[in-house]
Amino acid sequence: MDETQIASLLKSSDLFPLPQSLKLSYGTAGFRGDATLLASTVHRVGILSSLRSLKLAPSTIGLMITASHNKASDNGVKVSDPSGGMLSQEWEPFGDQIANAPSPQKLVSLIREFVEREEISIGGGGEGGEVWLGRDTRPSGEALLRAAEIGVSSVSGCVAVNKGVLTTPQLHWMVRAKNKGLNATEKDYFESLTTSFKCLIDLIPNKLESSKLVLDGTNGVGGEKMEVLKGYLSNLDIEIRNTGRDGGVLNESVGADFVQKEKVVPLGFGVNDVGVRCVSFDGDADRLVYFYLSSGEKKIELLDGDKILSLFALFVKEQLNVLDDGCCRLGVVQTAYANGASTDYLKGLGLEVVFAKTGVKHLHEKAAEFDVGIYFEANGHGTILFSEDYVSLLVDKRKELSEGSDECNAVSRLVAVSNLINQAVGDAISGLLLVEVVLRHMGWSVQKWNELYKDLPSRQVKVEVPDRTAVVTTSEETEALRPLGIQDAINGEIRKYKRGRAFIRPSGTEDVVRVYAEATTQEDADSLGDSVAQLVKSFLGSS
Ligand SMILES: CC(=O)N[C@H]1[C@@H](OP(=O)(O)O)O[C@H](CO)[C@@H](O)[C@@H]1O
Ligand SMILES: [Mg+2]
């Protein structure tokens, strides 16, 4: 790094001093926190993104400003690698180091060391770097995006391109397309999704009239983008509520996280919606869950990520059965939060089920090991990954099949699904379109879909503790290794309940320890959850 580069980094870092006592970690999904404290973090992630782009030159990197399901006053930042996947985990420790560097001088010396170690060539006349920036609808997003732009441009030869308000999956999709040399605008995203959606609808053998779907847009970017998408589609009957324009607050008693965790209707939904198929997005539209009201009360029937996964798995498997394609390795990936009944159901279908740590970066990695890998977190974040080799095999196969035959239709469906469902990351918009197609294909109502299996009652509790990092778990997060003795105490509680299951882990996105409990009745699940939460408090102290 030459003197001019060092001076440029020092000058731009002076503009964004680190707030006192801020301690951040890249976590499950990037850096998150109170938006007023994040300018230095976002600026530094701008620098990191430029370095990543130079390291992998020529390539475009994505930088997304969002705090997803967290409250509106929070914000955050996460990075997309050129593949459209999450930032390589190998770079996360460097991200942590620079985000927490106490002074511009220390920051620059860390960057200097890293650039040398990684042999990144800056301003050497090689390929320049490019970072595409997106943000959700949070009011703090604009100023933070500006901080990111300044960070990106303080690295010589790197340019920041502001793509404005986007969902997280849109940005990931666009970055992936750009690096593959494909058309990569937001319009291309909408066109690609709607073309494959129409193709799948055309391939439905017995088309029935479809009923109305109601979307809870969580007062965020997802509702806004679904309104744009509606303009591209004639065959989707959808009503959009909680768009953010009707006075509601982002994620406040609305959205996928609220609906999935609380199991009650979001604001804006009520007695008039009994029996209607409804869907909720989260704040950056990378998660979706379906639900319906079975009575006039607030309680809902929830169709979570596990049920969406099961629906997708059935559909894909049905197509593979038509092809009699025993050589396609189809697998599903879940986390410890997956409802035990869903895992039993999937295994009962003869599917290979594997487990990963919480956070889509972990699930994505495992799903990519299959020809077709379906992954979902129970909270509704997931997608279907098709290996490139398998898609080309399908495309070649289609050429040999007679048009309109069952085999040809099955191949066409699979290829269309690979174009519809976001290959970069879980995407509420493309997930919604695929659920709608599959339900119509099966001729199923949301109630019928819900009957695939019955969820075991479960309960999630958040416990605020002085230091959540005191909880250390095994790699699949089902057992706590620290604090010493807590797992034995948890096991003691679990043993008291029929089909009891419970685990704890530190959240990667909130300053809490999470407790998950499952049992055969809701009372038992609640009681198990509460007693494990009590154990957490007594081992770690409450804050
Ligand atoms: C139990 C739960 O829902 N955890 C969520 C949540 O992570 P935590 O590390 O649990 O805070 O946010 C992540 C990002 O959206 C998501 O991937 C994950 O599934
Ligand atoms: Mg999200």
TrEMBL record:
Which pathway features in its UniProt record? Nucleotide-sugar biosynthesis; UDP-N-acetyl-alpha-D-glucosamine biosynthesis; N-acetyl-alpha-D-glucosamine 1-phosphate from alpha-D-glucosamine 6-phosphate (route I): step 2/2
- Which Gene3D superfamilies does the UniProt record give? Alpha-D-Glucose-1,6-Bisphosphate, subunit A, domain 3 (3.40.120.10), Alpha-D-phosphohexomutase, C-terminal domain (3.30.310.50)
Q: Return one GO MF term.
A: metal ion binding
Q: Where does Mg(2+) bind?
A: 68, 282, 284, 286
Q: Where is the active site?
A: 68
Keyword Nucleus appears in the UniProt entry: no
Give GO BP annotations, semicolon-separated: carbohydrate metabolic process; UDP-N-acetylglucosamine biosynthetic process
Residues bound to substrate? 377-379, 505-509, 514
* Span of domain Alpha-D-phosphohexomutase alpha/beta/alpha: 60-90, 127-179
The record's free-text note on cofactor binding: Binds 1 Mg(2+) ion per subunit.
Alpha-D-phosphohexomutase C-terminal domain ranges (all copies): 462-534
Enzyme class, top EC level, equals isomerase
Cofactor field? Mg(2+)
The Phosphoacetylglucosamine mutase AMG1 domain, residue ranges: 184-289, 304-444
Return the SUPFAM superfamilies for the record: Phosphoglucomutase, C-terminal domain, Phosphoglucomutase, first 3 domains
Q: Does the keyword Isomerase apply?
A: yes
What exactly does this protein do?
Interconverts GlcNAc-6-P and GlcNAc-1-P.
Q: Which family does it belong to?
A: Belongs to the phosphohexose mutase family.
Q: State what protein this is by name.
A: Phosphoacetylglucosamine mutase
Q: Which organism is it from?
A: Brassica campestris
